[in-house]
């Protein structure tokens, strides 16, 4: 057996960066105290979700991968609690800006960087103003506790991304998220859809899924978004095993036997029976 405990967290971000960092760190500590080996924080957790509006002043929030104070701080947190942290942050690279994630290993080593591939654009979620499409390709990382894959928010709606992560060897897939109400359609609740599509990725690839979302109402200049939380962990069959509600700040943990899941995955034949020669159509828009 190769037992690994994974955790999802969620909280309401404030306007104060230091306060958000302290909250995130306290949730990592709580998860570690509960035995978590890998802890997921929500997308762009260091601030409110600023993409509600198009304001050039927010570009000053971005940090370079090599020198990011946020990554360096959480590298020390990871080392202190001996946990792996898939960490979402706002990246600046020369003249470009990305919605990025760095995997931090349990010894505090900052591993390779992933840049969000799919960039949404719509009322309240105006990310194309801030972020270029990622150029790194989909990433997996060999960590102390296994091979971990991660993608970011809007990436989670695309089965191709999850499939590639699984093909690259991801044993668990992590999705940091910022999603809630739709300003143009306030009666539209996408929460169940959001959970179902990720559970489908878990079932189709026979890998557990961990999703972390934010909570609370955030008010911008042009709209407000009520983030619906509902962070969850599902197993390799797509069954949700534990979840948080729409309003609570907290931590959930779940343990998996990665060796058992690997045995189940190979015996089911999902990868043996793939026919990529017939899949050329997905290479075209």
From TrEMBL:
InterPro entries, alphabetized? Aliph_Amidase/BUP, C-N_Hydrolase, C-N_Hydrolase_sf, N-carbamoylputrescine_amidase
Q: Which UniProt keywords apply?
A: Hydrolase
- Is Lipid metabolism there in the keyword field? no
Highest taxon above the source species: Bacteria
- Nucleus is among the record's keywords: no
GO molecular function annotation: N-carbamoylputrescine amidase activity
Q: Where in this chain does the record put each CN hydrolase domain?
A: 4-260
State the PROSITE patterns in the record. CN_HYDROLASE (PS50263)
The record ties this protein, via SUPFAM superfamilies, to: Carbon-nitrogen hydrolase
Q: What is its EC number?
A: 3.5.1.53
Q: What sort of enzyme, by top EC class, is this?
A: hydrolase
Q: Member of which family?
A: Belongs to the carbon-nitrogen hydrolase superfamily.
| UniProt-recorded name of the protein | N-carbamoylputrescine amidase
